[in-house]
Amino acid sequence: MMKKRFHPLTWWIGAIVLAIAISLADDIAFNVAVVAGISFIVFTANRSAIDKTPWSGGLWFALKIALVIIAIRTFIGIAIGVPVPGNTLFELPILYLPDWMAGIRIGGAITQERLFFAVSEGVHIATLICIFAAATSLTSPHRLLRQMPIFIYEFGVALVIATSVLPQLVSSASRIKSAQRMRGIERRGWAGVALPLLEESLARSLDLAAAMDSRGYGFSRKRSRYRREKLLRHDLTVIASSLAFIPLAVVAF
Amino acid sequence: MISFSNVSLIYPHSLRTVFDNLSFTIEEGEMVLVIGATGSGKSSLLRLINGLVPHHTGGILAGDISVDGISTSLTKPGGLAHIIGIVGQNPAHGFVTDTVEEELVFGMEALNFSQDVMRKRVEEILDLLSLTHLRQRSISTLSGGEQQRVAIGSALVMHPKVLVLDEPTSALDPIAAEEVLSILHRLVHDLGLTVVISEHKLERVIGFADRIISISRDGQAEIDIPEEILKRSAIAPPIVHLARALNLDSVGTSVREVRRMTSHLRDFTPLVAQSSDSTGENVVEINKLSHRYGQKIALREITLDFRTGEITAVMGRNGAGKSTLFKSIVGFHSSDSGSVRVLGNNPIELHGVDRLKKIGYIPQEPSDLLIHPSVAKECAASDRDNGLEAGSTLAFLARLTPTVNPEAHPRDLSEGQRLSLVLALILCSAPEVLIMDEPTRGLDYQAKTMLVDTLVSYARNLGKCVLIATHDVELVAEVADRVVFIADGDVVADGATVDVLLSSPAFAPQVAKVMSPAPWLTVKDALKAISDVTHPEGVQ
Q1: Cross-chain Cβ contact A213/B355 below 8 Å
Q2: How far is A220 from chain B, CA to nearest CA, in Å?
Q3: B111, A220: Cβ pair inside 8 Å?
Q4: What are the distances in angstroms from CA B63 to CA B22, B28, B60, B217, B517?
Q5: Which one of A142, B159, B262, B391 has the minimum C-beta count within 10 Å?
Q6: Do A142 and B137 count as a contact with CB atoms less than 8 A apart?
Q7: Does B11 touch chain A (CB under 8 A)?
Q8: Domain B2-232 CATH superfamily
Q9: Topology agreement, domain B2-232 and domain B282-508
């Protein structure tokens, strides 16, 4: 099978459209279905790809973060906030706040509505993150950056460094952590990793900035393109099908 | 092409003058090698050429540097991008894009080259560096040698007049290094490219250099032809040490020259190898070990034993499975099938002090082990972790390298000092098995000598098992009793160092090449064998 090359913007436009659709629908089931769908697309695309960019694994990382976000959002949502009347599930001890903070309370009755509201908020945020992580997995941010005109030199350098060093951090962190286990440092956790990691990423960022500088990046105000990226039929198919989600979201929910 | 006139350099917040009144010129089409101990300023010199120092690093620069008539003090590095191509120490840190083709065009796009020029040049460079089959590949999946070629390619695609390379072969296996260097050699001869290169492993590059710039610690430098510099320099490849030890009239820089000068020695000496019989007991037992990463098989059913009192070198090309094998022995990951036993234990289940007493592991980046803000604090933490008397690690370190300042931050140490710190941290608990992954990267000869002495005494005097993975054939020749050669996840050779190294010309050390067919690997071996013959009283 020939590897299809998508326009760098295709998946990002799709992601933005999907993000609008899930905001319009505001429904947990719809969100979960979207995440399942994009996970499937990323999985098939990654499996058929000959080799992967460091960002290919972005979605799996985002899925893990998504679970944490839902948990935190749910906890905060039920513990702190405005009382929502309804079917009381259980009661937490209430913490009384001074008068000027009326309307906000900590603890108190947890109603079914309040729980549901908190969970669906969490799922919404998590879904948005997953959608954009999926776009990143399918199109490396580097390809996207190359589509951007050079507005400001420093801005471009910063973005390239961020997108290059970030995936490295994940692999460096696990490398350093396992190396330190060998010194009998098992309990110190992430604190011991942070320092070497910070120094390494700083050194790498400087190396990269120097490399970009010495290759003439930003020296000329105009830049040429080696290959004009064109929107082809398969790009339009992806964008059109994501657009179809908007009326669906409006009508169905 | 490049001229330095009265150049002095001081970095900010530093009292030491890196260079003091340096003047020299490099002609067009010359290949110049920069040598010096670690920390002597080799990288600074290279980065001065295109103005990264001081434009990017800060510092005070006096004097003038001009390249092809352009003064670097007035022009930013970007303005010299079409004249100077620079390849950093670790090419992977300098890649800006994801695929080979995009990386090659990055610089040209930035300088607004027209599309047909770019197309023509990309094809030309892909052919020149044999990268055509890799053009669509993601750079992160390439081997070290391939990445180095991509980095050189993306510098050459700008048609520079000067190419500057900082330790281009330090991470490469001997074959990949040879490939990269012969490409450079061809560019110098065919295109009249000026190449400035720094390298610690002189044995690899010495044959290609037209002149050498030797930097000393006090900021002085001399430039001369290799024969002159190497006559006096403390930094010299084994071939030169051999010539000095044999009192030859002149030092040669190629195996061919020294072979001619020593033909009389080879005529009458016996062709016997020193036999080493090992009687140690097995401490590491590997049985049918396999490991895979996704689709890729890293190790296939490997069966090996490692004994006490023996130094084993694991060699092989980049990506052959050396690091995976070591990680399995250390217990970083569980294997797909087969078993690893270290002193009868599964290494994954070893924890705490018990682990420290059994396995000592020094990773490719020794600094991964360091987390404290000073040498003294690192050593104190190690005393605590190992249950040793306070101060014993520091004392151990002082024996290895007396010059280390205990108050210094570990990051400020030189590569060699940092390695001796890590060695002290690991060895003070006297682990039964010491495992080192690629220990000589970035080490100068002085630090290498410290490493060799430490390893040899650890294995011989204390009777411990030492495993090293390395590309450095000269190190292997110096220390190893046994060599295990791995290719594509399989053990393809396993035997005494002499037998394995001499069976492949690419992996033979310089002395062996000169003295072939005599089976001597190091200067010491050769001297001993020759003196046995010339003074036969020791022999019956």
Answers
A1: no
A2: 5
A3: yes
A4: 9, 22, 10, 20, 52
A5: B391
A6: no
A7: no
A8: P-loop containing nucleotide triphosphate hydrolases (3.40.50.300)
A9: yes
Omega within 30 of 0 (cis) for the link into A54? no
Q: Walk along chain B (540 residues) and give the pLDDT tens digit of each residue.
A: 899 999 999 888 877 888 989 999 999 999 999 998 887 888 889 999 989 988 888 888 899 999 999 998 888 888 899 999 999 888 888 898 888 999 999 999 888 899 999 999 999 999 988 899 998 888 888 888 889 899 999 999 999 999 999 988 888 888 888 888 998 999 899 889 999 999 988 888 988 999 999 998 888 889 999 988 988 888 889 989 988 888 888 888 888 888 888 888 777 655 555 555 567 788 999 999 999 887 788 899 999 999 999 999 999 888 888 888 998 999 888 888 889 999 998 988 888 888 888 999 998 888 888 888 889 998 998 888 888 888 889 998 988 888 888 888 888 888 888 899 999 999 988 999 999 998 888 788 888 999 999 999 999 899 999 999 999 999 999 999 999 999 989 999 999 998 899 888 888 898 888 888 888 888 888 888 877 766 655 443
* CATH of region B282-508, choose from 3.40.50.720, 3.40.190.10, 1.10.260.40, 3.40.50.300: 3.40.50.300
Q: Is the ipTM, as predicted for this complex, more than 0.95?
A: no
Q: Which of A50, A140, A210 lies closest to B52 in CB terms?
A: A210
Mark which residues 34-73 of A lie under 8 Å from B by CB. Answer: 50-54
A194: nearest CA partner in chain B: B371
Q: Measure B254 CA to nearest chain A CA, in Å.
A: 34
Break chain B into its structural domains and give their ranges: 2-232, 237-268+514-540, 282-508
- DSSP string spanning chain A? -PPP---TTHHHHHHHHHHHHHHHH--HHHHHHHHHHHHHHHHHHHHHSSS--TTTTHHHHHHHHHHHHHHHHHHHHHHEE----S-EEEEEEEE---GGGTT-EEEEEEEHHHHHHHHHHHHHHHHHHHHHHHHHHHS-HHHHHHHS----HHHHHHHHHHHHHHHHHHHHHHHHHHHHHTTT--SSTHHHHHHHHHHHHHHHHHHHHHHHHHTTTTTSSS---SS-----HHHHHHHHHHHTHHHHHHHH-
